[in-house]
Structure formats: structure tokens, C-alpha cells
Amino acid sequence: MADPVKRRYDTSRRQEQARENRRRILAAASGLFREKGYAGTAMPEVAKAAGVAVQTVYKAFASKAVLLKAVFDVTVAGDDEDIPIAGRDFIAAIQAEPDAARKIEMYLEHLAGSAPAVWPVQLLARDAAAADPGAAEVWAQMRQEMLTAMTYFSADLMATGQIKPGLTAEDVRDVLWTYHAPEQYELLCLERGWSPERYGKFLRDAIVAAILA
Predict the structure, then answer these.
(1) Domains of the chain: which residue ranges?
(2) Contacts of 131 (CB under 8 A, 6+ apart)
(3) Check: CATH 1.10.10.60 for 1-61?
(4) Which one of 1.20.58, 2.60.40, 1.10.357, 2.30.170 gives the CATH number of domain 84-211?
(5) Nearest 5°: phi and psi at 212?
(6) Is 163 helix (H, G, I), strand (E, B) or coil?
(7) How far apart are CA 13 and CA 137, in angstroms?
(8) C-alpha torsion 211→174→178→161, nearest 10
(9) Which pTM was predicted?
(10) Could you read off the pLDDT of 2-47 as tens digits, one per residue?
(11) Where do the H-state alpha helices sit in 79-181?
């Protein structure tokens, strides 16, 4: 009969090895996507850069599009912990803040800090969507997830009672969603050379002016 302690040890070691492989694959894919683009990156290249077999890559991520979405999710979160964005400390702090303008400022400070890492990955999906059905699905998923997140943020802001009279929760959501789009970062930072800090302050001022009384 197999030793249950040894079996648990072996299982734990395999799980840790799988997590380590996943981290290495994500790091390798992130670098290659940024360097060569989505279309220019092949799964065997990712495997070679990660130091794993290509079968290991496909076992962890069924397709290149799935891998791109995973790279995006980890970049947004800042780690690979199994904690949704809604459960992160910075979201809890925003929800606890009673002042609507300060809520927006706190959110935009976080967004501006993460933008140089996050938005280029999302823009990769957008650009690849025209030619790759898998990337198109990922792009649509990213946009829907952001719309959902801004729906929750809108409800949080509406609850303060500090929104302009006449604006509905859907109006506020749409304003947040529009200013949150990666195209804003693309235009201002990538094309016009703005700093992330200036970009964040611009969005903060624009959103406050648009929706707060």
C-alpha cells in the first residue's frame, strides 16, 4: 500500500512545479508579446524562453489567445494569486472612502501606476483581433469585463449622492468606461509622450467634471 504521506508530498511537489512552470511561461510570453507582437510570437518560442516543453505550455494554456488573456490578467493583478480584482485591498479602500471625488482620484492613481504595464497588453489583443478569431474573443472579453467593473464603480459612486442631477448609473458607467479605454493611454502617452502621472490627472479631472455635482 502506498504511503499516504509520500503521496501527499508528491502531489504537493507536482502542484508547486506546475505553478512555477505557469509563472515562467507567463513571464516568457509577456516579454515575447511585447517584443514581437501577438502574431510574431509562436508557442514553441514561449516554451523555449520559459525552459519548458511546448506540450507543457499547451497543457497550461490551451491556445495563444488564452495565454495572452492570462498575461493580461496577471499584469492587471500584479501577481498570480487567486484573488479577483474586486477582492483586492485597493478596491476595498476605494469602497470605504465616502467622498466621490476622492474615490475617483484613488482609482486613477492606481490606474496610472499600472497603465504602462497593462495597456500595451490590451492593445496587443485589440490589434490582433482583426486577424485572429481567438484574439477577437479575448478582446471582447476584456472589454466586457471592464464594462462590468465600471458598472460596479458607477453604483459605488451613485451611492455617495454626489453625482450630477439627471445622470443615471448607466450614464456614469459609460463615462467611466470611455475614459478608462486603453486608447486614451495610447493617444496621450504612447503617441504624445505624456507621463503616466499626467495621464492619470487628466482622466481624474475629466471624470470629476463630467459626473460630479
Answers:
(1) 1-61, 84-211
(2) 39
(3) yes
(4) 1.10.357
(5) -95, 145
(6) strand
(7) 34
(8) 30
(9) 0.85
(10) 566 555 656 788 888 888 999 999 999 999 999 999 999 999 999 9
(11) 89-96, 100-129, 133-158, 169-180
